Amino acid sequence: MTQSILTTKGLTKEFRGFVAVNGVDLDVEEGTIHALIGPNGAGKTTCFNLLTKFLTPTRGRIEYKGRDITGMKPADVARHGLVRSFQISAVFAHLTALENVRVALQRARGDSFDFWRSENSLHSYHDRAAELLEDVGLSEYIDTPAGQLSYGRKRALEIATTLALEPQMMLLDEPTAGMTHEDVERIVTLIRRIRTGRTILMVEHNLSVVSGLCDKITVLTRGRVLAEGDYATVSANPEVIAAYLGTEHG
Hints:
CATH superfamily of the largest domain: P-loop containing nucleotide triphosphate hydrolases
Helix content: 25-40%
Radius of gyration: 19 Å
Order of helices and strands: EEEHEEHEHHHEHEHEEHH
Number of domains: 2
Largest sheet: 6 strands, mixed
């Protein structure tokens, strides 16, 4: 029987009287791809920032692997295996794709970010970094400065650096935002490829992106849970259709 890896109870965030997230109960099952979706202003990113401890909830509780992480700092949460990517690509533009991943590997293993170590001592990082780049489809860009990669490939590189931290659970913040159709297809394929052995929670705006990708979808609107279930269930929900009028459903 599948068990929960991340849960929230009554998760609430207020900003000077404005309730951005209002009593959200979330249950993410281990080994699944779970999407948190909704139209603009639904509270998705605020909820995400609460889960990864970049914001402190006004009320409510967050548990990860049975541990109360409500009061934890972001770095402590990451050390427990809950690692996020950001909506804006965060890579070192002047470093090559390989060097970006190698820096993440050094961080994950507690080594300093020095670049004057012997080549022998860095060889294990080089091999693992190359493997991760292959996993995300960037083998041919191994020596390309990150700043020269297309936007979609920068996002793939960011996912590789996230994988370098060996997360048990990955949180992806709008991984396809601002992408061309071709890049969207590439990232969706990538997410399918990397799901083995880990749990993925992704914030997304577009229902079509999650349609064939996610096991479970939680729909937010105005900070509350509007609907939950698989794609067939939520896409047929009249309230979800109404919330998306003028966006995905023209």
